[in-house]
């Protein structure tokens, strides 16, 4: 797959949607359990309640979709990364296609349609308009999923002025934002420990 706007799928198995989800596979076994989602959320700066809620919502909401042909639900609610594209829900931006590839034109459309203040970021109001603009009729699950996903991104990814930068949003699609947030969070913890020890 050729590069599109700085994001490229590694191969047919590991597309950008899989890269996005793979960050939360903390032990790299191809399966994401709720405790791994929780650990990943904490690693990127999510608070206790946000991380618990995210783990429950994501794993309970999407586990069954990533386990086709398995009739009985697994009460550990695993997400199988090899089937993660089956968890693509409605009422979204279509920035991932059905194969999990990044669709540059759909990504750019977010900003051409909704970034009225500046083409390089979304304000909170513009983000809310974007979320509402993605709503599909009779798709309650997709609406809720979109609302939760985008507001979680806003909480964790907004800058000091309360803006969601274009590159931040781009980074969430391939998971690179998660790596940056984890590094930033680890650095902040180290500084806090160093300051505490020197006091």
From TrEMBL:
InterPro entries: Caleosin-related, EF-hand-dom_pair. Belongs to the caleosin family. Signal peptide: none annotated. The keyword Transmembrane helix applies. Keywords: Membrane, Transmembrane, Transmembrane helix. It comes from the Eukaryota. SUPFAM superfamilies: EF-hand. One of its GO terms (molecular function) is calcium ion binding. This is Caleosin-related, EF-hand domain pair. The chain crosses the membrane at residues 43-62. Pfam families: Caleosin.
């Amino acid at each position: 797959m050729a590069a599109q706007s700085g994001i490229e799928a590694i191969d047919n198995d590991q597309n950008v949607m899989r890269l996005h989800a793979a960050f939360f596979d903390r032990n790299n076994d191809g399966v994401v359990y709720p405790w791994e989602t929780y650990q990943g959320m904490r690693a990127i700066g999510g608070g206790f309640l946000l991380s618990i809620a995210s783990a429950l919502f994501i794993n309970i909401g999407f586990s069954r979709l990533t386990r086709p042909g398995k009739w009985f639900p697994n009460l550990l609610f695993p997400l199988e990364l090899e089937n993660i594209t089956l968890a693509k829900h409605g009422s979204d931006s279509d920035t991932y296609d059905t194969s999990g590839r990044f669709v540059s034109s759909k990504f750019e459309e977010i900003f051409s349609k909704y970034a009225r203040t500046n083409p390089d970021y979304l304000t909170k109001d513009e983000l809310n308009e974007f979320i509402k603009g993605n709503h599909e009729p009779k798709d309650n699950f997709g609406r809720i999923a979109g609302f939760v996903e985008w507001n979680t991104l806003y909480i964790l990814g907004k800058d000091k002025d309360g803006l969601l930068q274009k590159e931040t949003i781009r980074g969430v699609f391939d998971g690179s934002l998660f790596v940056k947030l984890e590094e930033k969070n680890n650095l902040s913890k180290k500084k806090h420990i160093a300051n505490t020890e020197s006091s």
